[in-house]
Amino acid sequence: MNPSLKVIHYQVNNFRNLINVEHRPSPALNVIAGENAQGKTNLLEAICVLATGTSFRTSSDRVMVNEKAQSYQVWGRYEYQERCFETTVKYDRDQGKKITLNGRKTNPHNPDRLRVVVFTPDDLYLVKGSPSRRRFFLDFFLKQASTEYGYQLDNYVKILRKRNALLKNNQAATKTFALTTEVFAEEAVKIILARINIVNLLDQLAGPIYEEMSEEQGGGLKIRYAISFPLDNGKINFDILRSAMLNQLKQIYEQECARKSSLIGPHRDDINIYLNDRPARQYASQGQQRSIAVSLKLAELAALQKTKGEYPVFLLDEVLSELDNERQKRLLRYLQGASFQSFLTTVHAESPYFKGNEAYVCHMANGQLFRKE
After folding, report:
1. Are the CB atoms for 319 and 119 separated by under 8 Å?
2. Which of 77, 160, 205, 301 is most buried (CB neighbours < 10 A)?
3. Are residues 90 and 222 in the same domain?
4. Adjacent-strand bridge partners of 9
């Protein structure tokens, strides 16, 4: 059996409508059932915050604090590499956020933090959605796979903002802009190389998973990273990418000055997804596109296991209602046979696919969690 991270016990206080929720989950599939607006998504969000320090729904911690409270706190105990860890994320409206690991203050980049993969209905539009959705998919993965990537992305965003500010203030002819552009290209290439490597790994993993999820034989799913500037050389390394990017920046200098924005770089890159050598965005059916999205998320789990040595925790929020019966059955069969821990929210607690004791089912109502007998 492949090793995986397991949440043993967690507690959520004053997080949205979750005043005091305590849960000792199963190490396998945990189903959180209940009507809409009862707190199911809030519970997954809290686990995501516990792992990453951030939400998959908002960038504001303030909106996650219960309206009658001053702060929220999420505490959890989990197993990782045969060791047990305790972590707490606390946010106070006045004092800000504090993250601790085994009693010591830490940050979201700590390599011993809990890791998660999040799957929401929005992710079912990975194929035909905007490029920003696919870039977020890569960045969310890479920040958990690599401590270094989180810092690199932060650095890139800072230098991008500085370069854009210079363009907006008509300072593109200054020495400062020239130096900023040099650093901009260097930081950009670090991001691009990391993304290319992970897309190549996802490409290897997603094809077989897609065949299992769709029962379409032939390995027709391919994933390629799409750089926002042309390459003259078939080889890709740091120097080649940096040279090509700087050359393209010179060629589009007038356009960037006119539009007052950086027109190439990782913030403009994309992923191209092909099914049977045709662009999936245009030629795959809606059902096929959704099977591809499911496959990409499962490939993300497998890729994290390959890069970090253990599977992360899988959080699935209301995705079953967006899949047809056959795809529901295949996904649940996969989860019930997997070695990783998963949390799945649904309004359909009585699904015939939750067989026997293979799924640990809880019910959520009014922000409270109950074990379903």
Report:
1. yes
2. 301
3. no
4. 77
pLDDT number for residue 198: 96
Report yes or no on 294 lying in a domain: yes
| Per-residue pLDDT at 108 | 81
> Phi, psi (5° rounding) for residue 212?
-70, -40
Let me know if residue 121 belongs to a domain: no
Residues 313, 51: contact at Cβ < 8 Å?
yes
Q: How many residues comprise the chain? A: 373
30 lies in a domain?
A: yes
Q: How many CB atoms lie within 10 A of CB 215?
A: 10
**Measuring CA to CA, which residue among 147, 143, 89 is closest to residue 116?**
143
Range of the domain at 192: 127-308
Which of the listed residues 256, 285, 308 is the one where a domain comes to its end?
308
Structurally, how many domains does the chain consist of?
2
Domain shared by 110 and 142, yes or no:
no
Residues 170 and 105 in one domain: no
Helix axes 147-168, 175-214, angle to 10 degrees: 130
CA-wise closest residue to 340 among 47, 151, 79, 64 = 79
For the residues of 294-341, what is the DSSP string, one character each?
A: HHHHHHHHHHHHHHHSSB-EEEEES-GGGS-HHHHHHHHHHHHT-SS-
Regarding whether 65 and 151 lie in a shared domain, the answer is no
**What's the rounded Cα separation, in Å, for the pair 300 and 93?**
34
pLDDT at 8 over 80: yes
Residue 86 lies in a domain: yes
- Rg of the Cα trace of the chain? 22
Q: What is the CATH number of the domain that holds 17?
A: 3.40.50.300
3-state class (DSSP) for residue 363: strand
| Residue 43 and residue 160 in one domain | no
Q: Are residues 100 and 235 in the same domain?
A: no
Whether the CB-CB separation of 291 and 127 falls below 8 Å is answered with: no
pLDDT band at residue 352 under the 50/70/90 scheme: low
Cβ(12)–Cβ(48) under 8 Å? no
Q: Which of 51, 115, 120 is nearest to 87 (CA)?
A: 51
Do residues 268 and 362 share a domain?
no
**Average pLDDT score over residue span 99-117:** 91
Alpha-carbon distance of 301 to 207, in angstroms, equals 14
Smallest CA-to-CA distance from 192 within 88, 90, 271 is with: 271
